[in-house]
Prior knowledge:
Shape: globular
CATH class of the largest domain: Mainly Beta
GO molecular function: Glc3Man9GlcNAc2 oligosaccharide glucosidase activity
Organism: Rotaria sordida
Strand order of the largest sheet: 6-7-8-9-17-13-12-11-15
CATH topology of the largest domain: Beta-galactosidase, Chain A, domain 5
InterPro entries: 6-hairpin_glycosidase_sf, 6hp_glycosidase-like_sf, Glycoside_hydrolase_63, MGH1-like_GH
Helix content: 25-40%
Protein name: Mannosylglycerate hydrolase MGH1-like glycoside hydrolase domain-containing protein
CATH architecture of the largest domain: Distorted Sandwich
Strand content: 15-25%
Number of helices: 21
Structural class: alpha+beta
Distance between the termini: 25 Å
Domain Mannosylglycerate hydrolase MGH1-like glycoside hydrolase: 442-544
Amino acid sequence: MPPPTHGAEYERLREVYDRKRNWPRWGPYLAERQWGTVREDYSDDANTWEYFTHDHARSRVYRWGEDGLLGLTDRHCRLCFAVALWNGKDSILKERLFGLSGKGNHGEDVKEQYFYLDSTPTHSYMKCLYKYPQQAFPYQELVEENKRRTRKDPEYELIDTKIFDNNEYFDIFVEYAKRDVNDILIRITVTNRSDKSAKLHLLPTLFFRNTWAWTSQIEKEPFRPKIERQDGENILRIEHCHLEPFAFDINPMDGTDDQVPEVLFTENETNLKKLYNMKNEYPYVKDAFHEYIVNGNKDAVNPLPQGTKVALHYQFNVDANSSQILHLRLYCLADTGNMPQKLNREEYNKVFDERKQEADQFYESIYAGELTDDEKNIIRQAYAGLLHTKQFYHYIVKHWIDGEEKYLMPAFPEKRLQTVKNTAWQHMWCRDVLSMPDKWEYPWVASWDLAFHVIPFAHIDPDFAKSQLLLIMREWYMSANGQIMAYELNLDDVNPPVLAWAAWRVYKISAVSKERRDRDFLHSVFLKLLLNFTWWVNRKDPYNKNIFSGGFLGLDNVGVFDRNKILPNSMEMHQSDGTSWIAFFALTMMNIALELAGGKDELPMNGAFQDMSSKFLEHFIYIVDAINKFGGKKNGCKYHRFFGDSWKIECPTRSGQMMSLIEVSREITRRITNIFKCDDQGRRACHGDDIRFQKDPYWRDLVLFHEYFHGDTGLGLGASHQTGWTAVVIRHIEDMAQLRANNSKEKNE
């Protein structure tokens, strides 16, 4: 299905492409977990999870980013907005998602219930949901029970603690609607699902990423930014040397007239006294709101109305089965003549209604086939999750290695430098919005994950898809020798070479007709991929026999041993999957070269690309000849074009039922889509047997897109929001819908 070509959201995308208006300047780019990442690790032993823990995160400043709950930031993560919550019973203020590090019986895992419900490509409209328990959050129970369980036991999830029984929780809906490029409306709806009234502390929070404290001159500020409230004003004025003057409205809850909230001020600075028993450089520090709200320390916040971190403190009761709504607004003062400009409730609702209707129109224009309402809901949430995986990613490897001595981030000692994995990538300079595999579980760029992310992206925002591929192959990412980085944990690792395939697919998807395909994009990525192909041939085929090794290839984490490590006794490993990946790489490069060679559709011939196509054909033949000794990967759908119905195999295994390859392909597609779709009893296999996801109207239409799935039951496992990969199910759903329509048409003829 080609991208849409009409509607308000399409026009916004057009303005972005033509560089007329920067609609994506603000978006969901705030990380969900900055703690426990390699880029924040300055330890001697590379124990990333223990060096910067969840408990440290509320008191300690990040060097390379920020995180928050259901948040928003600009594309350079200078000014951030997020929500903080307290139910009056938790031991800490809920400012970020909680999860386990390697202490879990199946490794790291987020232990929360949150969902991405909607987003347009320009983020002109976004909606997400967090389910916040009214009883004390079972932090310790989750840690201890998961630690007690073995790898043979299932993970112990938040739902298993019975914390949501009796509906004792709040649904916290956060919506964003752009009135203009730099005019963002925020609507927070708090719904009490319980049969009893319940109290909540709600703290919408504005804060600057700390860019002023470091020795690096890259983002050094000539003056400290500030957020301040002037006498008599119900707005916050925001000053930052790299931003225009902004304002943030201080509004009462809807229906409470002029009851404005308490406004709390502090600094986004580390609490050195608490963490290291050192004197604080500033009297007001990052965890001030936790101290003020949870511990009742009234001296923790700045009595002066200014700071680099500010919260509006609302505390209110929500009646049983009722909702409270709050409207807020962040806007550029330069667009209003440097004068504050308040909106009434009707104006807020008008913008939200318009953006929601435009989002509906946008997605209706891209649905392929005759989809059911359930299928549309799955696709909409898959795209929402995909769009919410965008994150500001900042990592300058050389500066990371050099450290920040003043802030207890020492340069790596010689002993650590000998073992630290990313020292060969000191050219790498990242400060971009990138698509993450999962913003909590894997909040860092991964090149082969990205290759799969851009396929669904190409259907809704082809220019973003292309820009991601081009970026990952730019000289400040790609090594000079042609190697493409793997992922933050080990940039030097080797992943399957799928970027050529991704570029080829994006090229074909992202135009309404062959004549309008972006040949400049294809040409650019082809030249960079030539370097990468040469790296593979020179580094991973040591004996020039077209048999390749590669380390971490194929499916994640299923090898009998770690293929990244050097084998003992000078042994070598020849990998059938590594070799087949290179055959696939060569064949894709041949297709790209043939396309660029021209000679059809009235395009002139280009002899240089003709020569390159024959070069890759030759390379493919050599590899195929070598790999025939191993066997290889097969795409049943494509092979069916050659074999037709003359070749059938048994499917399912041991069923006695014979199918052609296209029938097998459709059967696999049907099974994949059924993981997410409701069956006749309203059950989604991905959610298992939990009755809430089957019967409860506040849960049953919510869909999670897991990292992988139980082979027998379809239960979702691993990362719960890995939409980058799992959003590919969109294509499967649309293919099955198209097949239904074709079969129906044949029956009626």
